[in-house]
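User: Please fill in residues for this 482-position structure.
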């Protein structure tokens, strides 16, 4: 009689005795008591069958035992029976229908931890359906300028055709996300004409006072009456679910923005390299008027045009969305430096090379290294006087290779180097694009290196390229890309 007395004391408000009992304990206790009563009834029937069954008494007892085990197993494993029992206990044994701490933790677990490879919208539908024992549901999302359309479903197929304008009666009935709508049993309301016959509850997903979507839950298989507790819990869970959806949408937008930024960077690099190729082709056109009849010039022009076409195709291939990055080959940096000096020889400024690094190799794309060194040497030549010299020196420093491009030009102050030199789209040249220095540093950093600037106003500049050496390697390619 102790449980009955304790229950009577808890239900009598005048006694002021506060007894906290877990819903799970009550559920398991009620299940155990019901199972015990059922087994006692089976035992009584078995005794009657043994006493009055005659020759068939034993057989009837075995049939009764087997049938009772089947019935008990079916009832205990039935989800609908368990839900009905939980609803009965919460309604009649407790002041509040829900244990909010348990329900909220369960909701967070269902939404945050994907199971069975379910997407976030499906997990949200399932979590909201758990509160009201709904067997299925559909999530409708807002698309600005279009309206609401179904984007996910749980335990039912997604409706193929369906669109709900933002001024529909159902949307207005949400009252900016503060109102949950329940469909009448007959289902004759005009606002629900687009929904299925099983649709029962519309839960708004409100974020920043905007209904970003709503979930239509199907009617439960057993009768459920909703009160203010159920509506408050669904309203709070809907707002939390809306924040999850908004966060996921922001993450997708950020990822798309990063992809576009990366593509814009590659496009800017390609434009800058195409500008250099255009300069070479322009030089060929200007010299063709004087040396077009020279066979040596014709052969050199053909080689230059072929090389320009090949480099243009290579640059355009870098803009493809499915471009797969290739592992950089091992190259001889001295060969790349020699190719750069050979292209820039014959000008008013003499370019000298000093190799103190010996035989070494770096893992870098030869085209990228050549493009970076060409840009640095061209800037050094432009900053020098006709009688000056530009020196390209290379040496080892531990596991690194240092390539210095030194000129005796006017130099740069520290503020310009810090604030403007590597700023994209900032150029001190009238015909420049402002991407050269930034591109050069990025190309070197792609090879796990770096670019340092050593300069002083009035004393010249040294651009130092730092690349990691490959200690154990196969023989590097001795020829650079021309």
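Assistant: Residues filled in for all 482 positions:
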């Amino acid at each position: 009689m102790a449980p009955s007395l304790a229950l009577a004391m808890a239900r009598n408000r005048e006694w002021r005795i506060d007894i906290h009992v877990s819903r799970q304990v009550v559920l398991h206790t009620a299940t155990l008591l019901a199972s015990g009563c059922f087994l006692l009834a089976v035992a009584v029937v078995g005794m009657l069958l043994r006493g009055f069954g005659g020759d068939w008494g034993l057989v009837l007892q075995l049939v009764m035992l087997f049938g009772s085990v089947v019935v008990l197993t079916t009832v205990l494993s039935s989800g609908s029976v368990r839900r009905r029992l939980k609803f009965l206990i919460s309604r009649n044994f407790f002041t509040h229908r829900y244990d909010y701490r348990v329900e909220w933790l369960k909701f967070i677990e269902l939404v945050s931890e994907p199971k069975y490879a379910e997407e976030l919208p499906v997990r949200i539908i399932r979590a909201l359906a758990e509160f009201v024992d709904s067997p299925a549901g559909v999530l409708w999302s807002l698309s600005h300028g279009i309206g609401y359309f179904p984007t996910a479903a749980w335990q039912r197929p997604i409706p193929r055709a369906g669109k709900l304008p933002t001024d529909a009666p159902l949307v207005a009935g949400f009252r900016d996300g503060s109102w949950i709508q329940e469909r009448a049993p007959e289902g004759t309301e005009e606002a629900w004409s687009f929904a299925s016959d099983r649709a029962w509850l519309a839960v708004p997903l409100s974020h920043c006072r905007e209904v970003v979507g709503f979930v239509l839950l199907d009617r439960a298989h057993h009768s459920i009456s909703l009160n203010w507790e159920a509506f408050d819990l669904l309203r709070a869970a809907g707002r939390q679910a809306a924040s999850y959806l908004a966060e996921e949408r922001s993450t997708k937008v950020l990822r798309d923005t990063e992809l576009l930024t990366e593509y814009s960077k590659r496009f800017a690099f390609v434009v800058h390299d195409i500008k250099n190729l255009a300069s070479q082709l322009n030089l060929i056109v200007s010299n063709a008027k004087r040396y077009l009849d020279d066979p040596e010039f014709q052969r050199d022009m053909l080689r230059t045009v072929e090389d320009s076409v090949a480099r243009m195709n290579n640059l355009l291939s870098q803009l493809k969305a499915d471009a797969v990055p290739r592992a950089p080959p091992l190259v001889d940096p001295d060969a790349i430096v020699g190719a750069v000096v050979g292209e820039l020889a014959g000008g008013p400024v003499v370019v000298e090379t000093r190799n103190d690094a010996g035989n070494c190799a770096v893992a870098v794309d030869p085209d990228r290294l050549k493009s970076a060194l060409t840009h640095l040497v061209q800037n050094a030549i432009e900053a020098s006087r006709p009688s000056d010299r530009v020196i390209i020196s290379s040496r080892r420093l531990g596991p690194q290779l240092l390539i210095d491009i030194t000129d005796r030009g006017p130099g740069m102050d520290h503020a310009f180097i810090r604030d403007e030199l590597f700023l994209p789209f900032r150029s001190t040249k009238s015909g420049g694009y402002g991407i050269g220095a930034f591109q050069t540093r990025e190309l070197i950093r792609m090879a796990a290196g770096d670019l340092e600037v050593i300069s002083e106003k009035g004393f010249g500049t040294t651009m130092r390229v730092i690349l990691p050496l490959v200690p154990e390697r196969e023989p590097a390619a001795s020829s650079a890309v021309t």
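For context: Residues 66 and 286 are 103 Å apart (CA to CA).
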